[in-house]
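for the writeup, i need someone to sanity check this before i put it in the appendix. the sequnce is what the collaborator sent (i think, or maybe the updated version? ugh). structure was predicted straight from it, no edits. if anything looks off just tell me and ill rerun, i have time this weekend
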Amino acid sequence: MGGFILTNFGKIVKVSLEDNSVKRAAPDKELIDKFLAGRGINAYHLLKKLDGNTAPLSSDNPIIFSPGLLTGSEVYSSSRLHVSALSPLTGFLGSSNVGGDLGARLKSNGILSLIVEGKSESPVFILIDEGEVEIRSAEDIWGMKASRTRKKVAEEKERNVSVGAIGPAGENMVSMACITLDNGHAAGRTGMGAVMGSKRLKAIGASPGDCEIGTEVDDDEPVSEFLDSIQSHPDYEEWSQYDNSTSVKWADELGAGTVNNYRHVQAENIEQADGRSFKDLPRKPSSCHRCPVHCKAELEITRGPHEGEKAERPCYEPLVALGPKCGNFDVLETIDLHNRCNELGLDSVEVGGLLAFAMDLYDRGIIDREDTGGLDLSWGNTEAMDELLDKISQKKGWLGKLLSQGLVNAAEEIGGRAGDFAYHVKGLAMTAMDPRGFKGSALGYAIGNRGGDFTSIYGRPEYSFDEKMAEEVFGKSEVADRLIEEGKPELVKRAAIVSAVVDSLGICKVPLLSLVEDYDSSLSARLTSEIIGEEISPKDLLLIGERIITAERTFNIRMGLTSEDDRLPAKFTSEEIESGPAEGEVVELDKMLDEYYSLMGLTAEGLPKRNKLRELGLDHLARD
């Protein structure tokens, strides 16, 4: 196998749904040099196009689909597509990174960024084939669930079409609606499906293109080395067999899991909710573009009330969000709920947070059965959870309408003590790991540009590195101790920067960060140099990553962000964990936050300093 040098980065394609026009422009090489592609180029587009008066569900809010710079290349696991807009859930950065085949298909059709603007008068979908971009009527598929939509759009062409589609939740502009791709992939969090729905854009499909974007070269050593590093890693077999579904029990054993809306960090019956509890189910693995891990799988349910059904296997976050977080330890019901979310086009992690919030309020007597429309929202009642998913996706009934607006708005409308149990950062529901047991992740939750999330600031080294590795990469061995704050600002800075780089290159984080742990970006730099045909150093990539996350923060500040938004819910900074391996832990956030601001060139108020903006070449974009 030979290497592959990019000679054509692709075009920026703008689609206007107002007048059905399609315009193409070649990107400035300086733009690629500064932002790469994917997440980076999306940050640039948003910062350039939007001001603080833009409404997330207005026609003025574009939705941007950008493959990574290396997406579709010879590099293994180069499948990723980044989707961005102003978020209708948070009012800040809308950002989602997703696998499957659509990113590689866009790149093979000569598309570096697909920017969809305006709003159609009637439902439409976009179909891309042999480089041509068509806008077609979606009248006959509007109202369909996500999987049927993908199937119908794929049937438009004889060649295999990869499709990203919204379900009923997106059509109804539910704030946490997602976009589902192919089988088992979702552009989740931050409500990108709602933005598509606001534009009456039902789906985007692309056939394999034949755009020649590069030339073969003989030296493929970095690519081969990447494959060898993936397959020789001790955790490779487990990721291939289970994805990260076994992390449910892992977090519990560390005393930092999530049970009953963060009331508890451990549960006696946690094994019933873990990925190993359904290892007996027949599975059919699937893979993204050139990925040797095959972490996705279709399950055949051979027991229980859903026997005979096929279902996509959830990963760790949905298993917790719809499982123990809601007091549910029936993993087969969790799998069913996750797949129901995919069909409705609901982000299962965000919805899990909403359901847990509602069940917590119900248990505390803050809302009652009259408020729930007759639903018994006792912990673990999966029938009621299933009904509530429908209500949220249809904005049906008082509670369905309320929760469809997200945690912040729901808590504000309920009033009283409700806000004390709405666990979010910047309006985004917090994910599965209790931050009191992972201090680096705690800081990452607090400062994340899209909110309380782990994957966009992938801080694994605090529990996967040993002291020697931590000293080599971060200069502080304390980084490897998850229960202390020291060293965590350095970790979070590097994790945020590296995550932005990886999302902009278009490589999946599972092989590159979970397995190879390329937190010094040395392998990323070699792979990038090989593919683009010019030398780029780890230092170059880290500078680009810092530029990207600073651009995203600058965008958020334009949308109203202040340092007060870089906070954790009070529970995690004031209530100690009661028992277990992390007993007595709370998050001492302020000191970590001050250090992080200093490391990132931010003022005490969290604003980028002018000299930092100049250093990163962002001063011309950072208008008031």
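The chain has three domains: 3-216, 234-428, 438-616. The mean pLDDT is 95.
thx in advance!!
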